[in-house]
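Hi U.,

Before I forget, here's the chain from the pilot set. I'm dumping it here mostly so it's searchable later in email.
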Amino acid sequence: MASRKNTSKTYVDSIIWMNLLFVGLVLCLHSVNYTKDYLWEITHRFINPYEAGIDQILQKLAVGGFLFLSGYKLALSKKLEPTKAFLIGRLLRIYPLYFLAVIASTFTAYPYAFDLLPNSGNFVMHILALQSWLPNFFQANYLTIWFVSNLFFCYALFPILRIPTKRSRLLLMLSLLTAGIYLARFACLALFRVDFFPGDFDIYFLFFGFGMAFSVSSQQDHKSFSNTKLAILVATLVASMIAFIGLNLYLPKDAPTFFVLKRTVVFGFTLPAFIVMFSQLSKVGISKQQAYLLKYLNTASFCVFLFHRPIWAVMSTLWNNPSYLQSVFILGVGIPFIFVVSYQLQFFYASRVFPYLKQIRSAK
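Structure:
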């Protein structure tokens, strides 16, 4: 966060704005499971949002955005860190909170969504963060926190991805590793009839890799786009969104061309959106008090992502009749409560638990 001189405005880093925007999209998408479906209420008079894939557009922007930012930030800050130190550091920073989220979801969000407790195999699959590698292997995946499984996969490959010094070589390596994902997928399906790395696993990996590639340019380059370039980016993302909706409405999902076209248009609207956000959001001037509020909200963002479903599941159990009044409870009370709890969890872990774990590691 930085202030510009001779002005009463404070200008916040684009990454903070983007983090909070992605968290907001996640909360918007997932609130439909606990209260009235406002996405449907707003759009169904014009188009079915789920048949058209509007929810998928928002989901790719949100989850893809988190992975994109993760790749971007790590490429800037962890380029030279020894591999062992990097992997242990990432594990210590993220896994204990994730483990707590698995425990919380096991007894709240999962039974609320599926009306049963997860079995032991499903629980172990999530404890090991392998659910995105072999989704729904024992039972349905826990909702939302499958994202961490993708994140750990990206972390495991980061020491390899950071080797290339040029963007062209990094993109070549991404292509080869993505081909490896496809090969593993097809081999496991053909030999063992196991769906390995299925669905959009490759898309989420590429978001992380593209975030790393984006970091190769200087930060000044990200903020110095001409109006013409910005207009082209906006036109590309709008056209790609329209194309994505058209694919969902008119092309069968099992059509051979759907696989390739879907990936093309997904990156066609997400990457321009991320680039535009990087270049423009840091130019938004706000008060110093608002900037500090954004900073605190941003600190809570990872725990918001992990724990909003358990909290909402408990609240919805207490008041499970969706209505406008119930929405005040779930959204108006629930969202501030989620951020407060998440901030306290994150602050406690970062200030007390994480330093202790680092101290134990250093003593070995």
